[in-house]
Write a structure and sequence with these properties.
Strand content: 15-25%
Catalytic activity: ATP + H2O = ADP + phosphate + H(+)
CATH class of the largest domain: Alpha Beta
CATH superfamily of the largest domain: P-loop containing nucleotide triphosphate hydrolases
Pfam family, one: Helicase_C
Structural class: alpha/beta
Oligomer: single chain
Shape: globular
Protein name: RNA helicase
Bound molecules: adenosine-5'-triphosphate
Keywords: ATP-binding, Helicase, Hydrolase, Nucleotide-binding
EC number: 3.6.4.13
């Protein structure tokens, strides 16, 4: 666990995060050069705006808060303990101190009853998992690994921080590269060839780099060149040279760079056996459309398509915590008998209908926007606690500071929507003695990675960032996520919130909003199926406000 100075706070702005980590800790970071709300422009789904999600001003009127019914949540040692009540994920339940966090306890670890050895993985890979500190698979890994090993195309949906990356990496490494299963004659015949065996696509370069690090961790130092990153922002000719020289079996990259190098004839993926689309709902958004089209057409041969000579069909693996029905539709058309894999359930995609039994995919009406809304259900770790706090615009940063103190949060990610305001927030926090840093697309590559390193090392307590960090960042120690600006919709809320409470750890999400925005929080609460009670921070404590 990182030792974080108690006075430091770090806010992240949708940028790139480095991935050095503890044994079981990875970090996802976004490294685009500007703030982008990708899903807002997906023509398949319609624009994702508050109105498209059905937010109505009438909602505003329905929620009256009774300020006189305040219940104290935080119990600093010097505070009187009477009247103090904790808030469980389903409402007020237990007596405990929310604000006195010394370490990140694991509350509902998503670990499966199975062991890695039961999943049909090769012995060498099992050894490497052990060396890397992965001892028990998570539920989604237990469900996904055997399914992919059987040759199915899959859509993997499981909540943020539940281990989806290894869920697809393990079957790939079982069949590709030096750790793969031995052949009938007992030899593990890995030989370098010109063709790529697996292509993993991620929507940001930091996420791509993080996946590379996860693969390298398992490959070990001698074989780490079996994987190569092809991400934007880095020198393209060097990447092409490395492809030629190292002949990697696995490439991981961003859509633009993969498509570019492929179009230049420098990436040979015709006989590729695995195509992974990580954060698939974002990859299928309008912004990536052309590049993704090229990738889907040129990477391997999709199952069900006309056979090209003796080339075996690729397995297409689509992954996200949020899977709208548009992804299910796409997956059906690209795969042959594709399956939906969730933590404890595997079912044919054909059985998933807009009015079907899968919660995450079940829309309340037939529109694509409502289907997207429904996709946010089941995307949140169950141990997370959610609150909202009303504050005037000019007091938001101060409220954030009081929130951090009240919860004694050590590793904080604060989300905002605009770079200028984000910078101002960092300035204000620093001026009040809280170590904060900004992370956003206007920063150079070096500045971004330095900031991230500092955040990981505990030199920065609050990372202020924007939407681009919402999906990628994996910091096990992150104990608090704060929305200083409202997310665009429930899907964005879910991904932001998912930066804390990773792998069953405790985490708190606080949305600081203005009074006229409370109806949006109420709507999010309904769409996500979670309580987001009102709270305030007084006398160094988080106080939950009971509603009428
Ligand atoms: N079996 C395991 N044992 C211990 N740690 C694990 C295991 N599987 C994954 N992890 C760790 O858990 C963390 C979260 O995993 P990962 O990033 O794959 O989650 P995710 O489901 O992809 O999250 P998100 O939806 O936010 O992208 C990572 O630090 C990863 O290294």
């Amino acid at each position: 666990m990182l030792a974080l100075p108690s006075t430091r706070l770090l806010l992240l702005f949708g940028e790139s995060l480095p991935s050095s980590r503890l044994p079981n800790v990875s970090r996802k970071v976004w490294g685009q050069t500007s703030v982008r709300f990708v899903s807002q422009v997906n023509p398949d789904n319609g624009p994702l705006t508050l109105s498209s999600l059905g937010f109505k001003s009438a909602f505003e009127k329905t929620n009256k808060i009774k300020a006189d019914k305040i219940e104290r949540l935080d119990v600093p040692s010097e505070a009187p303990k009477s009247k103090v009540r904790g808030v469980g994920s389903n409402g007020i339940k237990t007596v405990k101190a929310v604000g006195v966090k010394k370490s990140l306890e694991i509350e509902s670890a998503p670990f499966s009853a199975k062991s890695f050895s039961e999943l049909g993985l090769p012995p060498l890979l099992l050894e490497r998992l052990d060396t890397a500190g992965f001892t028990v698979p998570t539920d989604v890994q237990s469900a996904a690994v055997p399914t992919i090993l059987k040759g199915h195309d899959v859509v993997i949906q499981s909540y943020t921080g539940s281990g989806k990356t290894l869920a697809y990496l393990l079957p790939i490494l079982s069949e590709v590269g030096p750790l793969k299963k031995k052949s009938a004659n007992g030899e593990s015949e890995f030989e370098k060839k010109k063709e790529i065996d697996a292509v993993i696509v991620a929507p940001s370069r930091e996420l791509g780099m993080q996946i590379v690090r996860e693969v390298e961790k398992l490959l070990g130092p001698t074989d780490k060149k079996v994987v190569q990153q092809l991400v934007g922002g880095a020198n393209r000719s060097r990447q092409e040279e490395a492809l030629k020289k190292n002949k990697p079996a696995i490439v991981v990259g961003t859509p633009g760079r993969i498509a570019e190098i492929s179009a230049a004839g420098k990436l040979h993926t015709h006989s590729c056996r695995f195509l992974v689309l990580d954060e698939v709902d974002e990859l299928l958004s309008f912004n990536f459309r052309e590049d993704m089209h090229r990738i889907l057409e040129h990477v391997g041969r999709r199952s069900g398509a006309d056979p090209r000579g003796s080339i075996a069909a690729r397995r297409t693996i689509m992954v996200s915590a949020t899977v709208p029905f548009s992804v299910i539709r796409a997956a059906r058309s690209w795969g042959s008998d594709p399956l939906l894999v969730q933590a404890k359930k595997v079912m044919p995609l054909e059985a998933v209908s807009p009015s079907g039994p899968v919660n995450i995919l079940k829309p309340t009406s037939g529109s694509d926007s409502s289907m997207r809304t429904q996709a946010a259900l089941q995307s949140l770790p169950p141990a997370l606690k959610h609150y909202h706090c009303v504050a005037k615009l000019q007091h938001k940063v101060d409220t954030l500071r009081r929130c951090v103190h009240a919860l004694d949060a050590k590793c904080v990610i604060a989300f905002m929507n605009h770079t200028k305001q984000l910078k101002d927030a960092v300035f204000k926090l620093e001026a009040r003695g809280m170590v904060a840093a900004e992370l956003h697309g206007d920063l150079g590559k070096l500045a971004r990675s330095t900031t991230l390193k500092k955040f990981k090392n505990g030199e920065v307590r609050v990372l202020v960032t924007n939407e681009l960090s919402a999906r990628g960042l994996d910091v096990a120690e992150c104990d608090l996520v704060v929305n200083l600006d409202l997310p665009t919709d429930s899907i964005h809320y879910a991904h932001r919130a998912g930066r804390t409470g990773r792998l069953g750890r405790k985490g708190t999400v606080v949305t600081i909003c203005e009074e006229p925005e409370v109806f949006v929080v109420k709507k999010l609460q309904k769409q996500l199926g979670i309580p987001i009670p009102a709270c305030e921070f007084t006398e160094g404590k988080l106080n939950v406000i009971e509603e009428d």
